[in-house]
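Please, structure for the following, as tokens.
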Amino acid sequence: MKINPLAYAVCAALTAFAPSVFAQSAQNTQTEEESIEVINVTGSLIKGVDVAGAQPLTVITAEDIAKTGANTIADLMRTISQTRGGVGSFTTAQSGATSTSTPPGQAAASLRGVGPSSTLTLVNGRRIAASSFASGTENFVDINSIPASAIERIDILANGASATYGADAVAGVINYVLRDDYEGLELSANYENTFDSPDDGKVGFQVLWGTEVGDGNLTVFADYYDRQPSRAIDRALTRDPILQSNYSYLPKNTPNIYFFSARDGNEIGNPECATPLVTTEFGEQICAYYANQDDYLETPLETLSAGFSFVQEYEDLTWKTDVFYSHADSTSYSTPAPINQINDDEGPFVDESALFIFDEATQDELFDNLFIDPFFTQAGQRLFGFGYDARFSDPRTVEVETDSFRLVSALSGVIGDWDWESAVLLSRSESSQTAVAGIYNRYQYTAAADGELCSDGSIANYNPDTDTLSCAGGSLLPMYNPFLVGDDANDAVLAQAQARPTREGESTVYGWDIRASGDLMEFNDRMIRAAVGAEVRREEITDIPSEDSRARVENGYLVDVFGFGSSLSEADRTQYGAFAEFNVPLTEAVEMSLAGRFDDYNDFGSSFNPKVGLTYRPVEELVLRASWSTAFRAPSLTQAGVKLRTTRASFDCSANQAVADLYCEGDGSVRGNNVLELGNPALRAEESESISAGFVWSPTKNTDIKVDYWQFEHDDLVDTNMTGVLAAAINDASLRHCGLVPDGEIGISYDPAVCTVTDNNGLFIDEEGANLTEILEAFNETGISRFEEIPLFRDHVLLLDNTGTQDVSGIDFDFFHQIEFDSGNLELALNGTHYLKYERNKPGSDEIEELIGQFSYPETIATAEIFWDTEDWYVGAYVFYTDGYQDDIERLRGRNIDELNDLGVLDANEERDVSSWTTVRLSAGYYFENATLRFAVDNVFDRDPPVAYGSGRGYDSFNSNPYGAIYSVSVDYFF
């Protein structure tokens, strides 16, 4: 991994020379005997002030984490109310091999379900580099890169915090605090698996060692984790498709004959289909494909991380350096890629001789029912054949290696009554991706199917005078027959067309900051304390795919390979920030906190964000608290720096009826098309305004009750809005293009076939004033298409834009009570979040939709705990509750809804609810003299996830899982 030599030089200079420089300025500070330990609390940079009760802060200690049985940070985040619900947090359960998927092997935590880019992730109170591979265009911190074994505690501040920390803290902050000042040696091992499948094993090993070094401490840690893959077909719950109508017309191994080649206009099923033929909504019999055949519920992942924390005392100075490095190997899969024509039209052509593998009777029947048409090959041959429908046999498979490195070196001391600290930061994430299976070059594959591929990968030359083919290099390969299954020689020809596109990404953060906090002045016989500071940060990101996976203007935006996109991004920015924070005791019972931060970016401008908080303690046992603040999220570097991103974009016909009538046959389904995304230099920062109000009541020394109301309004969300562009194109001819969108323009690409008809006034679809409804009616009369919708072409060109708003509010509740006995303590706890609203405008519409209670957005999430804890052992249980919500029926296809009606699972409004899900986790541990043994069983009653027909998997992978009961065992040994 390349580390900037300048960064090393800066760190070396600070750590070598700063002690002597600052020692002189600190001569008049407190002596060691007079000093007291002061700490930072996440959410405030004022040291030594008890502000924990003034804000909704959740602290999870290492012991808390151990009791849950979670072996990774991603597993832990599934148990925390603030990071459950919605689709913001994700794991590799949502990953895939294409650029629109969650990057393989990576995971992110999101507060309030609004997305990880709106949650600021810190390690020891400072930033960490985002993953170089974005999720779509959303940059995020890969929490799999943070060493779980080094976690001392996790602070979760679910409140806007840009006034303190700057950008990205829209929904709040998650701060991972690493261990330091440890003495001794600790060895740990853990194993996890499901009861019904021994192949889902997860194993981990950890080492923690610390010792005194001079007047300081060195703490070293290492962490290894290995997870086996879990496939849908290996589990009874996911082996079969949730709906028989979830089929695709594109089978693997056994192609169908394309409807356009059939005399009756219906698809012809492959006579040698390996599975029973499926009857479609058109009454035809086809060989179908179901995505669960190649679905991985969990992908393989192997990580290794190591690091150290070194603290050294120099009279009046403290020098602390934290370093960690992590390496991850992962593999991810997506369904096999569809096979199209070279220009990406459906139904690639093959010579009629491809049918000669069938017996004579089958051949006669097939030839009697299809058209044999002429077509021209790349080399210029005129062949006679037909179109077919198929996908490749192998899933699209990518392997990814990710290396993460982080270095923070800080000096701190005391001058008078003020603590100060200054640090340099270098954080980098590098990822390298290679496609290893299922990706094929469109030109070589087509040449192979036409008998024009040479053994060196080139395309043969055709001599029309002699009607012969020749190769400049290598030899001419035999024709690849897509209908011939299991033939080694045939498969060897296909292998010549396999491609291995690559992708290289790098994300780097350089930073320097200085902070100071202390007593400012006396006010009403009380001391106002303050914190001030400044920061300089440089961020760089590159995401460079190989040329064969890029869309290029000179090639008609065609990617060289089938079914594989890429994101070409390069961007950098420099940011300067300054902040001030004050804690003002107005009276003995009332305190006010004030904070403000100004940030200036060299690319999009500046932002100032204030925060005001009040706490009132009428009695010692009760604290009333409230706050107001603003926050912002700068457009991510990927969003700002996208050069040309090849992807699939969805448009939601349920969001706009006019769009549904023109492009979705009137139904509310979600459709997808190939899209080219462009960065938008005019993007504005996302902004939010948040308020919170609540109380902390401790009626006894062993009882805490916390209740907080919170709300934030989030404006100018950045996204690609294809639904909106389709809606705008109804009246804006500049967005309508026949065929490909010309270079330098944006808009929708329409199938050239629809460009041959006019509306009632003789206007074509790309002309100003054209009536698209009348054009649709005219196109339907041609009989060219089997669907009554305007056919779109490919590679619509869209700008990222500030597309809308969202307004989210809810109530957090937290109850803890401990009953002390002579033999131990009984601990009772209940915490959760009840959402009051989650309003967001539908893409492409000003209509506001209420997400709470809708698919993937439960109204209430809660966790109850009961534990018996003694000096020698503990035993307890967690009860995890996820509220029910509406199934995503509206966005299903008509044939899916017909099947659901036949099953009788829909109500009179063609709706249904996904049931609530309650699982129980048992946890127990025993403390030996030099060891700890822990055992946990999750989902002890083996509850299946609620059925969700709106998900192709049959369950909501964001809010549930199909693994049933899972056990884990861990052993810690101390020297």
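The chain has twelve helices and 45 strands. The first strand starts at residue 57 and ends at 61.
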